[in-house]
């Protein structure tokens, strides 16, 4: 007997579902914060250099500042002695001018005398000492003719005032912070952290601290989702476990609304036949679409708003909740952070084993290793959507496209690394 294939009305492709969710979100507003707190945050302004860098001509070495006319034709057999008329440490603001026959000892980073044309490193002179406190000699001998500008870091050679040095939308890294402080910029505007409320639904759920009793399981989704949210640079607020009761669900959602969160994220209670209190409460106070997404795991997905606040209901099975987050919630949070162009890169690997799928776009848990300069992939044991160990042991999601039902060993497969993993 063959049954006619009947697609329910709301069966969406992964990219359709992603698109519908994304269109609902936009970048959050900005806040000014000290650069000391800015690592990992997203710049919301262009940074324009307010200084030339270096801000003054300075020496790149410990040595002696000279005028080229004093060292014409100097070489090993024809050394020249110049009179040392100044000692210029880093930080000194005294402006020295050299007359002919004169030199000044100068330290790395110190202001170069106005008319000096090169610095000769101390090791290229007959005064090869760097000890602090060692008195400068009266004269010093030179053995070679330096090039014009040698060992001088000149004003503005790195950065020109007015140049755009960092662009809005960039994630701030440690070297960017060093650079901002070089420019004397103590504060920057960044996107504020999106605020995400997270709760779990289900009478079977216990917090991690509570020992199990018959019929109960530990809530794992809300802990995992909180970590996923924080890894992206948003703030997660774990509201907790909500029993399967309308008032409890409503109370929890109202708490999220009071905090004016940017997104309410729940898990479970979206599959057909679930005791569905989330559905009735959200629908009464906003709207909720239940989608069947053509993917595995994570087919059921709810999306809507509660009193105007965006709501995403992920499936309850932990692997499904994880994959649902990665595919639907991650892009939404990245958009809130103005990082819409950030995509999880896709790579290709060769399958080490046969893989069967069911025609839905599948995200299978796998391990990628490198063999002979190529990525190879195997599955991490059984792929049940409750088996979180398959994700714990995996470092990648292998992506089997829609309509493909099997791939033999040796085929090429797309994968994306699970964030925080390496291969
Ligand atoms: P449901 O969507 O409520 O039918 O849940 C689907 C499956 O996921 C059931 O086996 C639940 O016990 C399980 N589940 C639901 N929520 C969680 C959670 N927060 N942590 C771990 N498992 C869960
Ligand atoms: Mg449930």
Give an account of the 3D structure:
The protein has 423 residues and is of the alpha/beta class. It has helices at residues 14-22, 174-182, 221-231, 246-258, 277-284, 318-336, 389-392; strands at residues 11-12, 30-34, 47-48, 58-59, 63-66, 80-88, 102-106, 118-121, 139-142, 152-153, 164-166, 187-191, 195-201, 205-206, 217-218, 235-242, 263-267, 286-293, 295-296, 300-306, 309-314, 347-351, 355-356, 361-371, 374-379, 396-400, 406-407, 412-417. Helices cover 17% and strands 31% of the residues. The strands form eight sheets. A seven-stranded mixed β-sheet has the order 1-18-20-21-17-13-16, with helices on both faces. A five-stranded mixed β-sheet has the order 8-5-7-6-9, with no helix packed on it. Helix 1 crosses helix 6 (318-336), helix 3 (221-231) runs parallel beside helix 6 and helix 4 packs across helix 5 (277-284). The longest helix is centred in the C-terminal third of the chain and has 19 residues, at 318-336. The protein binds adenosine monophosphate and magnesium ion. Adenosine monophosphate binds next to helix 3. The site of adenosine monophosphate has 19 residues, from helix 3.
List strands and helices in order, with pairings.
Elements: E1 11-12, H1 14-22, E2 30-34, E3 47-48, E4 58-59, E5 63-66, E6 80-88, E7 102-106, E8 118-121, E9 139-142, E10 152-153, E11 164-166, H2 174-182, E12 187-191, E13 195-201, E14 205-206, E15 217-218, H3 221-231, E16 235-242, H4 246-258, E17 263-267, H5 277-284, E18 286-293, E19 295-296, E20 300-306, E21 309-314, H6 318-336, E22 347-351, E23 355-356, E24 361-371, E25 374-379, H7 389-392, E26 396-400, E27 406-407, E28 412-417
Parallel strand pairs: 1-18, 6-7, 13-16, 13-17, 14-15, 17-21, 19-24, 22-25
Antiparallel strand pairs: 2-12, 3-11, 4-10, 5-7, 5-8, 6-9, 18-20, 20-21, 22-28, 23-27, 24-25, 24-26, 26-28
Magnesium ion (MG) binds near residues 202, 268 and 274.
């Amino acid at each position: 007997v063959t049954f006619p294939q009947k697609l329910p009305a709301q069966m969406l492709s992964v990219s359709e579902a992603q698109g519908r969710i994304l269109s609902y979100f936009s970048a959050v507003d900005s806040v000014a914060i000290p650069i000391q707190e800015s690592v990992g945050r997203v710049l919301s302004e262009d940074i324009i250099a307010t200084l030339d860098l270096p801000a003054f001509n300075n020496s790149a070495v410990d040595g002696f500042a000279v005028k080229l006319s004093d060292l014409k034709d100097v070489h090993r057999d024809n050394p020249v002695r110049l009179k040392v008329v100044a000692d210029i440490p880093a930080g000194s603001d005294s402006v020295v001018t050299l007359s002919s026959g004169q030199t000044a000892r100068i330290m790395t980073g110190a202001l170069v005398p106005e008319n000096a044309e090169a610095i000769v490193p101390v090791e290229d002179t007959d005064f090869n000492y760097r000890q602090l406190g060692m008195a400068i000699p009266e004269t010093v001998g030179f053995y070679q003719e330096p090039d014009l500008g040698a060992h001088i870091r000149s004003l503005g050679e790195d950065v020109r005032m007015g140049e755009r040095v960092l662009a809005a939308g960039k994630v701030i890294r440690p070297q960017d912070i060093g650079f901002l402080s070089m420019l004397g910029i103590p504060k920057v505007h960044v996107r504020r952290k999106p605020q995400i409320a997270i709760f779990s639904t289900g009478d079977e759920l216990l917090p991690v601290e509570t020992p199990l009793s018959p019929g109960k399981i530990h809530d794992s989704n809300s802990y995992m989702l909180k970590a996923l949210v924080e890894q992206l640079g948003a703030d997660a607020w774990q509201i907790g476990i909500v029993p399967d009761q309308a008032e409890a669900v409503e109370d929890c959602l109202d708490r999220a609304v009071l905090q004016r969160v940017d997104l309410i994220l729940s898990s479970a209670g979206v599959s057909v036949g679930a005791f569905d209190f989330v559905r009735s409460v959200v629908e009464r106070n906003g709207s909720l679409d239940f989608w069947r997404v053509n993917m595995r795991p994570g087919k059921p997905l709810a999306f809507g708003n509660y009193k105007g606040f965006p709501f995403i209901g992920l499936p309850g099975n932990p692997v499904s909740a994880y994959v649902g987050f990665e595919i639907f919630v991650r892009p939404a949070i990245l958009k809130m952070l103005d990082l819409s162009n950030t995509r999880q890169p896709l790579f290709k690997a060769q399958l080490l084993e046969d893989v069967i799928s069911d025609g839905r776009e599948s995200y299978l848990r796998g391990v990628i290793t490198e063999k002979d300069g190529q990525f190879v992939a195997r599955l991490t044991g059984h792929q049940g959507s409750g088996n979180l160990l398959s994700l714990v042991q995996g470092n990648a999601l292998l992506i089997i496209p829609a309509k493909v039902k099997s791939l033999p060993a040796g085929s090429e497969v797309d994968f994306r690394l699970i964030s925080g993993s390496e291969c």
